[in-house]
Amino acid sequence: MIAPGCQVVLDERQFPILLEYLERIAEIGDINFRLEMCVDHRPGYSVSWDNDGTDEQDDAVDRLMSDLVQSLGFDAGSIVKPEVVADPSDILNAIHLRDAALTALEKVPNAPPESWDEMPDD
After folding, report:
1. Cα within 13 Å of Cα(80), Cβ side
2. What was the pLDDT predicted at 43?
3. CA of 23: how far to CAs of 28, 31, 96, in Å?
4. CA torsion angle for 3, 10, 79, 35 (degrees, to 10)?
5. What pLDDT is attached to residue 67?
6. CA of 37: how far to CAs of 46, 47, 50, 96, 114, in Å?
7. Under 8 Å CB-to-CB from 52, ≥6 apart: which residues?
8. 20 to 30 A from 18, CA-CA: which of 26, 55, 88, 114?
9. Going edge to edge, which strands form the sheet with 45-50?
10. Mean pLDDT by 10 residues, the chain (122 residues)
11. Which long-range contacts (CB under 8 A, 24 or more apart) does 83-88 make?
């Protein structure tokens, strides 16, 4: 999952978090994910990756990588919650719950409502 020549510059707290997220990305499937860079510049950061998944898999990887950046505590203007280091287990649990909810929604047919299920006209 680590691309040849990948540069990783993290501290001892951040590295295990990266490994947790790589494991979660591996669970998405055979998408040929490759981490190309993960550097904490303090302030700022550089993170890049590539994968060959479907659109849905790409979206899942993008969400995980965004959450990874928050969990690592990177300092930059693009961070969703600056100066907040997220607990990776909380984020991974939330991702699991979100994935379960999306799976349930996919089972709901996308069809117009039945006549008995529509609101009456005023």
Report:
1. 11
2. 80
3. 9, 13, 13
4. 10
5. 85
6. 7, 5, 10, 25, 52
7. 31, 32
8. 55
9. 2-9, 34-40, 45-50
10. 92 91 92 94 88 92 88 70 59 66 67 66 68
11. 88/17, 88/20, 88/21
37, 47 contact by CB (below 8 A): yes
> Does residue 43 have a cis bond before it (omega within 30 degrees)?
yes
Structure tokens at 45: 């950061």
The predicted pLDDT at position 70 comes to 83
Name the one residue in this structure whose structure tokens are 């669970």.
27
At 106, which amino acid appears?
E
Question: The tokens of 97 are what?
Answer: 């719950």
Give residue 57's pLDDT: 92
The two three-digit tokens of residue 78, written as one number: 């693009």
Phi and psi, residue 53, nearest 5°: -80, 180
